[in-house]
Structure formats: structure tokens, C-alpha cells
Amino acid sequence: MAKNHVTTTINGEPVEFLCETQQTLLDVLRDELQLTGSKEGCASGDCGACSVMVDDRLVCSCLVMGVEAEGSSIETIEGMADGENLHPLQQKFLENAALQCGICTPGFLIAAKSLLEKNPDPTETEVRYWLAGNLCRCTGYDKIIRSVLEVAAEAKGA
Fold first, then answer.
1. Which DSSP string corresponds to 82-98?
2. Which of 67, 71, 89, 145 has the fewest Cβ atoms within 10 angstroms?
3. d(CA 29, CA 66)
4. Between helices 105-118 and 88-95, what is the axis angle to 10°?
5. Residue 55 and residue 67: Cα distance in Å, rounded?
6. Structure pTM?
7. Residue pLDDT tens, the chain, 158 long
8. Structural fold of domain 88-157
């Protein structure tokens, strides 16, 4: 089967890859580019574990075809930290123990970062609404919501 050549930007770096027409962006990230932070939880867009940003839009990478990445700018969990320095959301998730098994964590972090970029001072209701597309089967949501609100409060006070 012929493969498609795709040129894109991932986490600020130019990237080229070959993919088959039926490969999802999640498959390409994990299998072709070895960016395994995004997880496959459902393969139907229901859990949010594979969330990434495509052209500043939060998407489930299991619902986007790899060939659709042509010319796009993609942000994954691998690009969230600045080298050894964790993003404030990552640090707060650790401090508040807002994770357990870790399958959902990359998706929650990407979604929370997207929220705070669009709305740096959300209410608890807004955080809950924004993260409603992400499912966690281990922790419940209180520590996750608290972590996002604490990062927003700290950024506001800085």
C-alpha cells in the first residue's frame, strides 16, 4: 500500500513522516514517531486520553487521520515541559497526587493547558466543563480540578 508523505510541526520542531491513509494521528505519533505519551483509551473519541492540540485546537488524536496533519502545528504531552522543567500543571498534578495509573494523565494535562491558554482564570464549573471529555477511572476528579484551579490562581497572583 502506498504511503503518504506528511510535513508538519510537532512540539515546535519540523517533522516529516510517511503514513498510510487509514492511520490515525495517534497511530502515527506512537508507532511512526515514537511519541508514546498520548495514550489510546477507547479509539472512539470518548475518553480524551489521546488529546493533543492541532493548530491550537484540542482534539482526540484517535479521531484525526495522520494525513490530515499536513501543514498543521501539533502539540503533544512530550512538548509540555521545558527540558527538565515541568510545566506548572505537571508539577501541580504531582504535588496534589492527581494521577494514579497515568493512562488519562497526558490527555488531562493537554486539555487543562488548552483551557488555561484560552481562559487563564476559570471557575470550577468552567474547568469541569472543559475537562468533561476526559475520563479517569482511578482517581476521581477532585485532585485534577483542584490542580488546574491552583495553577490558575498562582499564575494570576504572579
1. BTTB--HHHHHHHHTT-
2. 71
3. 9
4. 130
5. 15
6. 0.95
7. 789 999 999 999 999 999 999 999 999 999 999 999 999 999 999 999 999 999 999 999 999 999 999 999 999 999 999 999 999 999 999 999 999 899 999 999 999 999 999 999 999 999 999 999 999 988 789 999 999 999 999 999 86
8. DNA polymerase; domain 1 (1.10.150)
